[in-house]
Design goal:
- The structure holds 2 protein chains of 2 kinds.
- Chain A folds into 2 domains: 139 residues, Luciferase, domain 3 (Roll); 147 residues, Rossmann fold.
- Chain A is of the alpha/beta class.
- In chain A, the strands form 2 sheets. In chain A, strands 1, 4, 6, 7, 8, 9, 10, 11, 12, 13, 14 and 15 form a 12-stranded mixed sheet that branches. In chain A, strands 3-2-5 form a 3-stranded mixed sheet.
- In chain A, a hairpin with a 5-residue loop joins β10 and β11.
- Helices cover 30% and strands 24% of the residues of chain A.
- Chain A contains 10 helices and 15 strands.
- Chain B folds into 2 domains: 197 residues, Aldehyde Dehydrogenase, Chain A, domain 1 (3-Layer(aba) Sandwich), CATH 3.40.605; 178 residues, Aldehyde Dehydrogenase, Chain A, domain 2 (3-Layer(aba) Sandwich), CATH 3.40.309.
- Helix content of chain B is 42%, strand content 19%.
- Chain B contains 15 helices and 16 strands.
- In chain B, the strands form 4 sheets. In chain B, strands 9-10-11-8-7-12-13 form a 7-stranded mixed sheet.
- In chain B, β9 and β10 form a beta hairpin.
- The longest helix of chain B is centred in the middle third of the chain and has 22 residues.
- Chain B is globular.
Chain lengths: 360, 410
């Protein structure tokens, strides 16, 4: 596969639909062909559905795998000895986790794409970085959990990296204040997972009646709203809380997953998640996986130009999303803009053999 | 019973343990006692007459099953060849499956008809059907006719992984009826039972459907619609999760022309039926697609999947598979293959096979097939449409006989 040089020189949000299609469609066609040639599991599935290569006339036609297949099968399109690291999704103990196999070129493409996207928020220069997590999470570098991988990925943007939580996940207020004093008046970058920022930063500050002066901070956070929505915390109240406990004005969430690391979807000032030239979404109807209309909620499929070492360039998630439009978001970015409204509610299985069944 | 069971107290009123203790001291009765038959047919009347239950097909099916005429048929059948004296074994512990709401009632009725005291562990999940049935039972138990019947029945609900309670209940049982598959059977086996205790175990099973291509090619549109309706009921009512729902469709083919017509007509009719009545939630659609992809990976090459709609997946695997382990399917995922003769199937039928639902075969030829091949699986061979119909003969057991004992008086 050719590398992504063509993509990386461009502004990720500058391209209108037509130019964009011309750029990416050949890439997705080649990715599909590449995985058919290199991954026998992928080939089995595509041959069973009688897929023929000429059918990809637009991104909607790119064949997709269910994202959960990476939990039950080892799917890779490179030889085992080319695998340079394996990433796993975060799951509570006992749950099956996704395993994503990266070779050097896929890993490096992830880094470069992430840089291209994040620099649109914080600029090209490195900033002092405060990670709202414990350094323990990144200790084992051979097996990356999604959380560890996210932190390491974003650490590239830090001139110096400090962890706000100790090994017991307690907020070290003193350490944070020292960090803030040292960088008073300069822009700083804060990264963390949404639920961890809430539980281990916002709540402890609130209960200690403590407020931090962080108006110079840019916060980027992501990694799932499910936990917070259970506690009735939405994006608006999350932002309001950060403003009240730490005077933080600039808070940007993102949507992404370990199965497509790098090509994340960043939130704009109008509260929408944006596709870029590296990534796209197709919203599909559960009944037949046909494409939804603009504004119609459905299952989110995510596309990424990055994955070459595993067949993950088009993945159907269990998340429900709404595409609100293309190229005409009020924020000025081109490309698609959408919302993730939640995860499809899981129903209990019906049937006979289940008395002791536990969900996987 | 002198032992004081105590573990249930955490979950229910301690009164329950008192009731279990006193129920266990009740006498067994003869099979098909008048009072048991009359109680069950009263439940049937209630279910079928009141409009209240019309929206629950499983309650209506239970109502039909338990009506007086069917009980008479079962009694006739039971005493057909002999007038042997049969009594209940004593105390039967029923472990109902977690996700089939009405199954506990069938199990309870079988225990009653066999003449036993019954302790029924209800599904741990809450279902309105369970509450409706318990309300009917409780009302009847309050009437003088069924006071004693009520003393012989206890319904309990507790977390299924509470081994202490399951252990206590197992220790007082003379028979256990264990639904819920391999894992549950395995879990119940860990608990000591009395030496005379008999277990009736319902393990994980696999079922398939066999259709004669010529017969289907010849059907009128009306007959075809009826067949599709029956096939739908067998397969989709429990999202294809019931052990007797078919996942594999085996076509018997004598002429190549008729198989093309037959497949096209049959699946078109099924699809029409499914599209008019079935709905698939978003997460189930993803699960179904994931299961399909997983199977396709395991089977490898040489298959053709038709996925025009997520409501119906048809996977043509060509010939009979070497094993059924690769053929996962839920929510309407069907694998199909062709044979020239039923006998071609015999080598792949393992003890895991339960139900063969058929269309276009005569009973005689099916009997010859089963006898001639000596297969170790296959306990039920029923026409399409009856795969889910509960019967006293299930999984190769005559449940009522299994839960009673013969007293040989010479």
């Amino acid at each position: 596969m050719e590398d992504l040089s063509d993509f990386l020189v461009k502004d990720p949000y500058s391209m209108g639909s037509k130019e964009y299609q011309n750029l990416v469609l050949p890439r997705y066609q080649r990715l599909t062909q590449h995985h058919i040639a290199r991954c026998s599991e992928y080939r089995s599935i595509l041959s069973a559905i009688n897929f023929s290569h000429g059918e990809i006339g637009s991104l909607v036609d790119v064949p997709f795998l269910p994202v959960r297949l990476f939990k039950t099968h080892q799917l890779l399109s490179v030889d085992n000895d080319e695998v340079f690291k394996t990433m796993t999704s975060s799951g509570t103990s006992g749950q099956q986790v996704s395993k994503i196999y990266l070779d050097r070129s896929t890993a490096s493409a992830q880094t470069r794409v992430l840089t291209g996207l994040v620099s649109t928020v914080i600029g090209r220069k490195r900033l002092p970085l405060l990670v709202i997590d414990s350094s323990d999470v990144v200790k084992n570098r051979q097996m990356f959990s999604a959380r560890g991988a996210g932190i390491l990925g974003f650490s590239m943007f830090g001139a110096e990296v400090h962890y706000a939580l100790d090994e017991k996940m307690n907020l070290d207020i003193e350490k944070v204040e020292k960090f803030l004093d040292r960088h008073a008046g300069r822009e700083i970058f804060v990264f963390g997972f949404t639920s961890i920022i809430w539980e281990h930063f916002v709540i402890p500050l609130r209960s200690a009646h403590k407020s931090l002066r962080m108006s110079n901070a840019v916060v980027i956070h992501g990694g799932g709203w499910k936990k917070l929505l259970d506690q009735a915390v939405d994006n608006g109240s999350f932002k309001a809380a950060l403003r009240s406990v730490a005077s933080i004005e600039k808070v940007v969430s993102y949507y992404g997953m370990v199965e497509q690391t790098g090509s994340i979807y960043l939130e704009c000032d109008h509260g929408f998640l944006h596709t870029s030239i590296y990534s796209d979404v197709v919203v599909r109807r559960p009944r037949d996986f046909s494409e939804c209309e603009i504004g119609e909620p459905g299952l989110l499929e995510v596309l990424s130009v990055i994955p070459t070492s595993y067949p993950g360039h088009a993945l159907l998630t269990e998340d429900i999303g709404i595409l609100h439009g293309r190229d005409d978001c009020g924020c000025g970015r081109r490309g698609g803009y959408f919302q993730v409204v939640g995860r499809a509610p899981r129903s209990e299985p019906r049937g006979c053999s289940d008395t002791y069944a536990k969900p996987t | 019973m002198t032992r004081m069971p105590s573990q249930l107290d955490r979950y229910a009123d301690s009164v329950i343990w008192g009731r279990i203790t006193s129920a266990c001291s009740q006498p067994a009765t003869e099979v098909f006692s008048d009072v048991a038959c009359s109680f069950i047919s009263r439940v049937s009347r209630e279910l079928l007459i009141s409009r209240r239950y019309a929206d629950w097909p499983d309650l209506i099916a239970l109502g039909y099953f338990s009506r007086r005429a069917n009980l008479e048929r079962m009694r006739e059948h039971a005493f057909n060849s002999s007038r042997e004296l049969r009594l209940g074994r004593g105390v039967v512990l029923h472990i109902a499956p977690a996700n089939v709401p009405v199954n506990f009632a069938y199990s309870f009725f079988f225990g009653m008809l066999a003449g036993n005291v019954n302790i029924v562990r209800l599904p741990s999940r809450q279902f309105p059907q369970v509450d409706e049935l318990l309300a009917i039972f409780t009302n009847l138990f309050r009437t003088t006719d069924y006071l004693e019947t009520g003393h012989k029945a206890v319904f309990v609900r507790y977390p299924s992984d509470d081994d202490a309670v399951t252990g206590e209940l197992s220790s007082v049982a003379d028979a256990r009826v264990v639904w819920g598959g391999d894992a549950t059977v395995e879990a119940l086996r860990r608990h000591p039972i009395s030496p005379r205790c008999v277990d009736v175990n319902f393990s994980d099973r696999y079922s398939f459907c066999s259709l004669d291509a010529d017969a289907i090619a010849r059907l009128t549109d009306r007959e075809l619609e009826r067949l599709a309706h029956d096939f739908y009921n067998d397969s989709y009512l429990f999202d294809q999760g019931a052990c007797s729902s078919p996942r594999l469709v085996v076509w018997r083919v004598s002429a190549q022309e008729s198989i093309v017509i037959a497949k096209d007509r049959f699946w078109r009719a099924v699809r029409q039926k499914v599209e008019s009545v079935y709905s698939l939630s978003a997460v189930d659609a993803v699960d179904k697609f994931t299961g399909l992809c997983s199977s396709l990976v395991k089977i490898g090459s040489g298959v053709r999947a038709i996925l025009d709609t997520n409501l119906l997946y048809i996977v043509d695997i060509g010939r009979i598979p070497d094993s059924i382990d690769n053929l996962e399917g839920r929510f309407g995922t069907f694998y199909e293959c062709s044979v020239e003769d039923l006998r071609d199937l015999s080598r792949f039928i393992t003890p895991r096979f339960q139900t063969l639902s058929y269309f276009g075969f005569s009973k005689e030829e099916l009997k010859r097939f089963v006898l001639g091949s000596g297969v170790r699986g296959l306990d039920r061979v029923v026409p399409v449409g009856r795969a889910l119909s509960m019967s006293e003969n299930w999984d190769g057991y005559d449940i009522i006989r299994s839960l009673s004992r013969i007293v040989d008086i010479q």
